[in-house]
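Hi all, posting the design record for the shared folder.

TITLE: backbone redesign
STEP: 1 of 1
STRUCTURE INPUT:
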């Protein structure tokens, strides 16, 4: 007679599965709460202590860790020495293990949970059993996902046993599960010990979403989510309308949200190919949208929009005048939603807590042969803002300089942008030298550059950028400072009565 060991925390579907397994002639062994549920539902089940000849001890910490269990799982059925040894020791075969683990993930995410409770939800026997069964998949079926019950039963009903292909597939899921489970535990202890960069790095992601393709149609792609910290993110967004997000949609939407989170007042951010093409703040969202749109009325076509206030009918009408791939906001009025969803190809996302900023996570970049890990760039300014020119910025200039400094954090380096009235009017991005970025921003701003201010993510290595800005009529500059030629730039700014502020911190973005 075939025997199955069933011990599950998540009891979804387990009664019907066990009933059918019993009907097919399997003997069922079980533990604790699972034994009670199966027994109460009229299933003939054997308590595990009858198999181990030993009671559960230490408040259930030890119940399946026994040779009578692991011997029955791990022996090779075609190895005569293994078979004889089990006969000698009177150990019965265990041909199926059905187990899912203590809810460590759910426990560690609970508000106010104690360290003691977290520790008690680290499963020991479960991982040992399912790893043993997965290692011996040639002979043993192991199930950790209730979604696999039907597949297993179908094969047993049709063939009397599961196929090797299915057992190997189920074993794969076990090792994915235990690796993920252990990574959660390791990361919990890393946080406890304030270890920022552990010697061995384990990253935990789940809920895979297959994407149509990656950055280009010939690249396969998928999207994985973190276990928590989903508030205010693309991963936690609620899709109200439109097709599934593409790889580029997700990447660009994340870029828009990263920039948006720098601003507290009503703000709209437009992004195209991971770079902002317009950012505006105003007394209300309508004003903010107009400012963002007017920065670059061409590039915004087919772009991503993110707003940090409820989108109303007026804003929705303006958005619908052009083609936008994705719109994100914390909420929408009914009329606004009706207007936006009248277009088939727009994705409308609701992002609860869109203003959330406190993410204790890291930026991760994959390179050939390794991973780069760094803290997120959350620090806006250095120890102090330092005016280094003869003329100080006016209050109006300083307001725009600080707006620009927040905005330029989201621009790919070398990056600069021109600002007027809390709106970007010209953006220079992703250049290999600073002057090209400055010249591009001036060109894109046109006549609006006069009396504007400029923010630069890195210092000016030469005075040529200041010369170009003076010629365009720019009146104030904010930049990190720190070049060996800072004095030349300061002198050039003084020559043209330009105010210059050093932040003492740079914001490269590659």
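Okay, here is what came back for every position:
SEQUENCE:
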């Amino acid at each position: 007679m075939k025997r199955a060991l069933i011990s599950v925390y998540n009891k979804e579907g387990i009664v019907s599965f066990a009933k059918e397994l019993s009907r097919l002639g399997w003997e069922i062994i079980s533990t604790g709460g699972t034994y009670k549920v199966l027994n109460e539902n009229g299933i003939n089940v054997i308590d595990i202590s009858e198999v181990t000849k030993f009671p559960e001890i230490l408040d259930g910490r030890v119940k399946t860790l026994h040779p009578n269990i692991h011997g029955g799982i791990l022996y090779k059925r075609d190895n005569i020495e293994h078979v004889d040894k089990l006969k000698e020791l009177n150990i019965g075969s265990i041909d199926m293990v059905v187990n899912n683990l203590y809810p460590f993930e759910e426990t560690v995410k609970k508000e106010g949970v104690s360290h003691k409770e977290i520790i008690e939800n680290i499963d020991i026997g479960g991982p040992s059993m399912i790893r043993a069964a997965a290692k011996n998949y040639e002979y043993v079926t192991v199930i950790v996902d209730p979604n696999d019950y039907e597949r297993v039963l179908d094969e047993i009903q049709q063939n009397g046993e599961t196929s090797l292909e299915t057992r190997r597939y189920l074993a794969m899921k076990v090792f994915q599960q235990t690796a993920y489970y252990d990574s959660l535990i390791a990361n919990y202890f890393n946080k406890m010990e304030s270890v920022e960069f552990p010697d061995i790095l384990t990253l935990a992601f789940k809920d895979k979403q297959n994407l149509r393709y990656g950055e280009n149609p010939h690249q396969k792609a998928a999207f994985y989510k973190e276990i928590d910290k989903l508030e205010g993110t693309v991963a936690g967004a609620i899709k109200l309308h439109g097709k599934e997000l593409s790889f580029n949609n997700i990447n660009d939407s994340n870029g828009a949200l990263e920039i948006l989170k720098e601003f507290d007042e009503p703000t709209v951010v437009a992004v195209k190919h991971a770079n902002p093409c317009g950012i505006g703040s105003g007394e209300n969202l309508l004003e903010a949208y107009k400012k963002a749109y007017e920065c670059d009325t061409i590039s915004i076509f087919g772009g991503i929009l993110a707003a940090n206030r409820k989108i109303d009918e007026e804003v929705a009408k303006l958005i619908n005048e052009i083609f936008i791939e994705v719109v994100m906001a914390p909420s929408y009025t009914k009329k606004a939603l009706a207007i936006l969803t009248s277009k088939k190809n727009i994705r409308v996302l609701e992002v609860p807590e869109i203003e959330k900023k406190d993410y204790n996570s890291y930026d991760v970049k994959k390179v050939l042969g390794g991973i780069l890990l760094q803290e997120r760039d959350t620090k806006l300014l250095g120890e102090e803002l330092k005016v280094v020119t003869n003329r100080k910025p006016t209050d109006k200039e300083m307001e725009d300089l600080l707006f620009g400094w927040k905005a330029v954090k989201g621009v790919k380096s070398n990056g600069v942008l021109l600002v007027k009235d809390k709106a970007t009017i010209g953006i220079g991005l992703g250049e290999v030298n600073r002057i090209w970025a400055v010249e591009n921003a001036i060109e894109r701003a046109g006549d609006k550059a006069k009396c504007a201010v400029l923010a630069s993510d890195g210092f000016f290595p030469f005075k040529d950028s200041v010369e170009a800005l003076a010629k365009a009529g720019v009146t104030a500059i904010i930049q990190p400072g720190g070049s060996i030629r800072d004095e030349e730039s300061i002198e050039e700014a003084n020559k043209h009565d330009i105010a210059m502020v050093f932040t003492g911190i740079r914001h490269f973005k590659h």
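COMMENT: The chain has three domains: 3-193, 236-350, 386-502.
Let me know if anyone wants the other runs.
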